[in-house]
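Troubleshooting log. The previous run stalled partway through. Resubmitting the same two chains, unchanged.
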Amino acid sequence: MENKYNLKSPAVKRLMKEAAELRDPTEHYHAQPLDDNLFEWHFSVRGPPDSDFDGGVYHGRIVLPPEYPMKPPSIILLTPTGRFEVGKKICLSISGHHPETWQPSWSIRTALIAIIGFMPTKGEGAIGSLDYTPEERKALAKKSQDFCCEACGCSMRSALLPLTSNSNPSAEDRQAKELAQQIKFKAESSIIPQASTSGSKASTVTKGETSSSSEQQAEERPQAEQAEASPAADPEELQAPNDSGPVRRLSPRQRRAQQLSRQAPRTGREPVASRALFGPAPRRDNHAASAVLIVVLTLALAALIFRRIYLANEYKFNYDL
Amino acid sequence: MRSRRRRKQISIAKMAEEQQESSQGEMEGVNCLAYDEAIIAQQDRIQQEIANSNPLVSDRQDLSVLQREYAEDDTVYQLKLKDLYKKYAYIRKTRPDGNCFYRAFGFAHLESLLDDSKELQKFKAVAAKSKLDLVSEGFTEFTIEDFHNTFMDLIELCEKHPRLQELLNSFNDQNMSDYVVVYLRLLTSGYLQREHGFFEHFIEGGRTIKEFCQQEVEPMSKESDHIHIIALAKALNVSILVEYMDRGEGGSVNNHIFPEGGDPRIFLLYRPGHYDILYK
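Second attempt completed without errors. Output:
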């Protein structure tokens, strides 16, 4: 690899250094450049143990721009997590979606730790984000270990060091975690303005699915939005306990997928298989209900106006015909 | 009865709004990704245009070039220009890319040290030690050392008494120049965080010093304010004089020395949003 690249290029110099630094897998992450391209890396990260991603080891790509580290890397997941979309650039303040907040002193390691730190946070409609149910995420976590990457030859079962029960994070790891926390904070504040519109819309749709009465929906909406805005709100709290299908806030893409699947026959009901196929009926009911309500209200209005005119002018109608 | 009617009208309007909103949401889902990338591409184009018409650090020019930049009947600026002519003879412009303060400072200071080897040695010692200070503050050594090395390379270049053009070439090499800017930003951030007890009173928006540094100091292209200048001047123990030329009344340019009471060797011209280098 050494003679293929211009060693005077700052990006090459830096990436060589990072490749050496990250050569050995840790318990939580590992990343190395592809054999034939220093500017494309593959990584594996372990899901945080105290989350729905416990037991998962996920795989993805990092694409470095020629200006690295002056410009941020792009991060793309290759295996499903239920938190990030597969095959789409992730929108973190540390990734290529927010070049204005990237810092040249951050590194690929910072990015890996940021991804791990980001998993348990809510997607809130940000680009490339998903909000799957805990059950789906746990199922995906279990499945994730079966993945073997053809491009880099990594098997998820052996990609990382096994977790030890009394693992003492090194000073370096602690430092990096602290850094990731700052990133997390920043990304949240920078995502909110963008997410607030689509987030509240998502809540409207979801609410429409849980409650069939649209009046109830109008009343409940403000509270639901408040609950979403507060960071402490548990996604499970928003679920209707007796609802048969899984209910969640959806990314725009999922909503589209759901609408497309409305025509499709309802088959699997198990959490993973029903991802794109759940709950088409309630949404249609809601549409019909609002149409009926509009007609009824219009008729009522017309009747009232008619009566007012009738009273004012004292028209006489011939009812006997 | 009327109020009931109104309520119904409102509820109808509300429903129509909601329907519109949800269809808008779907549109956004389709477009936002492409939209995001389009914005980034446009910003890149604008940056490219600025880059094509402005070198990172220009040659030294006669101060009278400024005359052309202002309308003749713009009395406020014409008066201030006259005042500026009394004190300075030349100007060296920097590219307006949000990094101009750091680039102007870096170049002007090293240039002033070219023929003062005693001061240069003092400065080299401060600069050499600065990396250890940053590492002990929690900056990751292997990511900041490239920036530090580039900075030290430039100082070592100055030790060899190069022609001015060599220093200018280095500062116009995008890679090298940007690495120096990154390191000066790190020094500024490091000093602000070290002296957070003092500086946190000047931070707007309820942010901590750390957040301020993450958002306004360390990312490239974030513009500099008083607080950045004081921090960098103190971090490197260098005195900076800034002449402020804005639309304020008075007919004269006001200057400010950072830190106060210093004996400045470098002079910068501030016009709203931009710094250039001045020479007597």
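Takeaways: The first strand of chain A starts at residue 29 and ends at 34. Chain A touches chain B through 51 residues (CB under 8 Å).
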